Amino acid sequence: MTFPLTMDMPLDHQAVLPEATDVVVIGAGIIGVMTAWELAKSGLRVVVLEKGRVAGEQSSRNWGWIRSQGRDAAELPIMAEAAAMWRQMAADIPEDIGLRQCGVTYLAAKPDEIGRYEDWLPHAKAHGLDSEVLTAKQTADLIPNAQASWVGALHTASDMKAEPWVALPAIARAAARAGVIIVENCAVRTLDIAAGRVAGVVTEHGRIKAAEVVLAGGAWSQLFLRRHGISIPQLSVRATVAATAPLPQVFEGGAVDNKLSFRRRADGGYTLAPSGFHELYVGPDAFRAMGGYAKALLADPLGTRLLPAAPKGFPDAWGTQRNWSADDVSPFERNRILNPAPNKAKVAKLARDFAATFPTLGDVTIKTAWAGMIDTMPDVVPVVDRAPLEGLTIATGMCGHGFGIGPAFGRIVARIVRGEPTGYDMDRFRFGRFTDGSTLLLGPNL
After folding, report:
1. How many angstroms from the chain centroid is the CA of residue 420?
2. Structural domain contains residue 2
3. Residue 230 phi/psi, 5° resolution?
4. What is the pLDDT of residue 347?
5. Which domain CATH number covers 211?
6. pLDDT per residue over 89-116, tens digit each?
7. Confidence bin at 273 (pLDDT 50/70/90)
């Protein structure tokens, strides 16, 4: 299978739309698919509607890390459940999803980075993680043959990895076998609202009646919500990723320093990405939300570079339609898969930096490169909550952390839909935190 997934891939799910179902899930990324699977396990009828392809956007374009390390304290217990779910799926799904326990390492170039790691460590210990701060010598022993002056590292040996473009399609097939109806190439144009609550959805192929709808639309969530008079300060940043040709192994796990991140893939190559660098296309939503992002931009947790305008058809492009009727062709049909071009200069630098870090590799050949649009929130934690519209649940703004934690958030969303206790303190992820006067606390800058 090629990566990332594109519209050139054949349709894997072509079910006929039912007239009615119990729950409609909008979006077939990791959150949407896992939500649907968990709902189906409880006997509910579930339909997942995807405008393009399963895992076509950020769920197949991420680094492939499944990590507890560096997460917000409120996410850590949820991540523990996600890790257990990943292990169970790897055992139960009759396909290799690439799950491996290999560890994740944050490499420190300066002593102050060690200080931040040590500040986060009590959260790890409180949740029973095996995270530890390594000395310079321990770091060199962990990743030998590196030509780098790392002064230490934060290392979590129990963290894992998987192959994103393999894992989620396999998970979706498992969900379909469990009774979930998945329909690709089927955009949801609008919610069907009656008597002030959700009554279903209107798709490009017709209506589906449903008392509950879950929006897990990633970078498209804000555009869809605003069409219905609901707003969250969600923006999307472009993240560039590259894949090398097969190389000798220099480290089995995932690691990141002040220049680049690297993770060994199942095909013998490495997935590379620039460290702490994302690009924000400034559009109407960015202007509206910029005040809320001031603190995050000053703290620079995403290393964000501002660009003047998004390409045509992107969710926050200046020319993107903001209002349409259920009978109109929607922006979601005009852009089936959000496929931003990678930053070519960064891709070339990744190859140089990786070769300089590991001189024994010689010249590093980039096999392919891509970019994804990461849906993010001002405090760098997601929204997972009921919307101010009865029958609608929102799960979005995963801030680049969704792949690993996705299974557990899917289970939590299923509990919310069923009206059950989530099992966690969800205050950190509530919808209203941006408008109720709460002080926004940034997630860890690690």
Report:
1. 25
2. no
3. -120, 140
4. 98
5. 3.50.50.60
6. 999 999 999 999 999 999 999 999 999 9
7. very high
